[in-house]
Amino acid sequence: MIDGKKVLFSGMQATGSLTLGNYLGALKNWVTLSGEYECFYCVVDMHSITIRQDPATLRKRARALLALYIAAGLDPKKNCIYYQSHVSGHAELAWILNCYTYMGELNRMTQFKDKSAKHADNINAGLYTYPVLMAADILLYQADVVPVGVDQMQHLELTRNIAERFNKLYGDVFTIPEVYLGKVGAKIMSLQDPTRKMSKSDENPNGSIYLMDDPDTVMRKCKKAVTDSEGCFCYRPEQPGLKNLIDIYSVCTGQTPADTVAEFEGKGYGEFKVAVGEAVISVLKPLQAEVAKLEKDKAYLDAAIKENAEKAQYYATKTLRKVQRKVGFPDRIR
Ligand code: TRP
User: How much is the mean pLDDT over the chain?
Assistant: First the structure.
């Protein structure tokens, strides 16, 4: 609890270009939650280097992601928006937690297995202990809730286990975080393969709408989206391509899928795809304008980065000192 409010922590990686799926499925929800909780929204740049990165690109993308958080509507005066690498406590707590995490637990992480298969030439120890750094992120701020996608559930479960193990040994040190799963219907699928999630690492660029895509590109991708030959304007799993487009249209226009079906019943897919394109463009345009504005206002962004890093550091240090004391590190001489 901070000032009587429950604490929320979440983070995103700055690798790859963010997609409409990241925005509608995650970022937009974060904005909704931001009034209700004391929020920490982190750009997890330390996680990013578990896969080889070009330094200049990583730096640029991390800043763009932070600007995007703000552009999406997260006020940096009310939400702690910061870079993981600016707060040394993440690495320090991660080290300690490493000593309370079993290799057997890490061996079971499906994301580690997937990523090591994908990057077989660079299976580094950081990739292996990635979930422990994530646990440190969350526990450092005594987070009550963590909004994540289903793909991160296993990591969150591990976080809870580590926290419970630690608490059992040393008393009530960590808050046990709960997962906060986003509303159903916000999961956006690939436009080319609607059985898979829209992903920033999709090899087929037509499958994903990127947040920085220009209107022509958005429209082209929507028109090319895979549908079916059923010719029925229905919202059902048997027509995953159409269902996904209905979801996108509904979230972008703020109506329910049933409203959308009623609006387009009897109309052709072609006409609907154009409407989807327009709805997406109307969401992305103001977002892109806001990002451009922020990227020009260096002083404002820098001030927000500095203030929030200090704020995060304050809360992180509080937890870290407590943990260091519990495990037996000598007190600091003041
Ligand atoms: N691993 C998360 C992802 O790839 C990102 C992340 C890092 C995170 N630390 C976190 C999410 C802490 C929630 C809480 O999506």
Answer: 94
